[in-house]
Amino acid sequence: MDIVLQQLVNGLTLGSVYGLIAIGYTMVYGIIGMINFAHGDVYMVSAYLTAISIALLTFFGVQSFPFIIFGALVFTIVITGAYGWVIERVAYRPLRNSSRLSVLISAIGMSLILQNYVQLSQGPNQQGVPTLLSGAFRFYVGDGFVQITYMKVMILLIAFTGMAVLTYIIQKTKLGRMCRATQQDRKMASILGIDTDKVISSVFVIGSAMAALAGVLVTLDYGAFDFYIGFIMGIKAFTAAVLGGIGSLPGAMLGGIILGLSESLFAGLVSSDYKDVFSFSLLVLILIIRPSGLLGKPAVEKV
Amino acid sequence: MSQTAGMNYKQCFTDAVVAALMALVVFGPIMGVVLDGYKFDIDFQRVAVIVALVFVGRLIMSYYFQTEKGKAMIFKYASNHDGVTVNPPHFKSKMIWVIPLVMIIGFLIPFVASKYILTVLILGLIYVLLGLGLNIVVGLAGLLDLGFVGFYAIGAYALALGYENLGLGFWSMLPIAAIAAAFAGAILGFPVLRMHGDYLAIVTLGFGEIIRLVLTNWVSLTHGPNGISAPLPTFFGLEFKRRSASGETFHEFFNLPYDSGYKYMFVYLVLFIVVWAVLFIKHRLVKMPIGRAWEALREDEIACRSLGLNHVLVKLSAFMLGASTAGLAGVFFATYQGFVSPSSFTFFESALILAIVVLGGMGSTLGVVIAAFCLTVLPEMLREVAEFRVLIFGILMVVMMIWKPRGLVRVTRNGFAAREGAVK
């Protein structure tokens, strides 16, 4: 019983992280219909930026935890957002009118570039950040106990705040309205005076900022990372996006949480060696059985 | 000077400054601050160099695109220029004599080349085989398969496991591995091929990873990350070892001094023949109705289905043929290394094979052969830049997609002439 509860707690935090990254996939897919294969590597870059910002802040004598985490969040989100903008500008915008295959191959190329660029600049070794926040709540259940670290509580708080802010931006602001209009019909939106190129750029920036949020939280919690983490995380987050229904924002969050929960339960109850196999099999199964996902609209093929 | 009157130098300069600022923001932290444990080292020089490069590059680009030539170039690349070059009917290339020449040279090479060159060439040929297989799937049928390495792994492990558990050697496993890989392709492909483009890419990617993870974690069967040994081919039952427990070895039978190079010679020759056979089969398939169907389906799926093509079966045939070619390549890889482990079958291999197909020209056989040798043999020659290999692949993939989405070697095809006596 306590194992199940513990895995549910772990799964919820993991799932909220998947959800944050999945937002980037789902928004980009919704607006230009491409899989941004390099998105996982944007997350990886944000992990490095987190460590760099923490190292810089402690070097300049900032010691208090709230300042460090605030500084790390701002620094990482801004610069990762710049990465999103540059990637779209360099690798995707010139291909706006090309076939889907070309864009996808370009995205794979971008993913390889990011991985190797970080590896060459920072070295191939695993890097880490010091533990900044330790301690945990403990709840006794029967014979065992369930432990929720303060870090996990913080992940949940920040992740859900991030999602709430994003939902507000998309639903209530002018930028959000422009995004939704472009998503529905790009040509019509541009006829009505929306600068669609700018909207697409801002979607990449928002997606990258969300990945950066996830990157900061996971790096602070987990501590260690290398240049290869983006690949697995990217596929998992994509699975979450597909599970929720690609193109749907609440779907990405829901899909992330469902994937996180089921993966943690599988790891805790069946086998942790095969948890990645489980996630990938889930991805294959969803795409075969229900490609439109839980909250997505079924794709209608136009002739 | 009416042409330069339209030049907007201020625009060039602003573009370049913006690009340089973005480069500073993007490259600054990652390249400038090198993590070292919880501390860091500062490296200003690298950042300064890359920002200067971006500034100058953007300045030149901005200037060039304002000239007449540059505008013409933008216009050319803004339009979709897909398709193939069509030659007149009954066109015969004047370069046809190259094929027998390459064949003869290829057969003579192992008798003169050193062992090292031979191993590099074997690796090159293995990638030719992989490139040809993926070319059927991606280039001809237009199905982006990112898990191609999974079939390659199935072929390689089929040889190793067949030898260890069933006692089957190279020659019996060669067809079995190809069939096993094709069968795996069918199992994966049948449900998956109904869905369109991007989803297929992700499902195959997931499949490739599943294969690798299972090979890593199923320790009782595959020995996990430690890998498993694979047998060498035999020459009509003669082994290429120094000594054999079961009868004579190759060098004893022919009264030759023992040389470990013989086995590479033999593997090379067999591989060379197999590559030619695959080339021949592929060349013929493209001209057959099935090959036409692949390409038609790639260009317009809805039109094909309206005309009564069974799109799932047509795609499945391409998928299975590609998979079986990868299975063949896997057998050769296993026997050439004498050993297989899951670390040889990462996603990077899939990306490399994809880079071969993309660079060579999707659908073009000649292009794929050239690209396979370029991407495998050149890194062996240029060891100094080996660490930049992945970076260069990535840049090549992006640049090729923008500059020449159909690859370096364009597909050419002969046009049709009306048959004799046909009603005109």
UniProtKB/TrEMBL annotation, chain A:
Its main location: membrane. Signal peptide: none annotated. GO terms for cellular component: plasma membrane. It is found in: Cell inner membrane. It is a multi-pass membrane protein. One of its GO terms (biological process) is L-alanine transport. PANTHER family: BRANCHED-CHAIN AMINO ACID TRANSPORT SYSTEM PERMEASE PROTEIN LIVH, HIGH-AFFINITY BRANCHED-CHAIN AMINO ACID TRANSPORT SYSTEM PERMEASE PROTEIN LIVH. This is Amino acid/amide ABC transporter membrane protein 1 (HAAT family). It comes from Marinomonas pollencensis.
From TrEMBL, chain B:
GO terms for cellular component: plasma membrane. Residues 12-107 form the High-affinity branched-chain amino acid transport system permease LivHM N-terminal domain. The chain crosses the membrane at residues 12-35, 47-65, 95-113, 119-138, 143-163, 169-192, 199-219, 262-281, 316-339, 351-378, 385-403. It comes from the Bacteria. It is found in: Cell inner membrane. It is a multi-pass membrane protein. Keywords: Cell membrane, Membrane, Transmembrane, Transmembrane helix. GO terms for molecular function: branched-chain amino acid transmembrane transporter activity. NCBIfam families: PRK11301.1. This is Amino acid/amide ABC transporter membrane protein 2 (HAAT family). It comes from Marinomonas pollencensis.
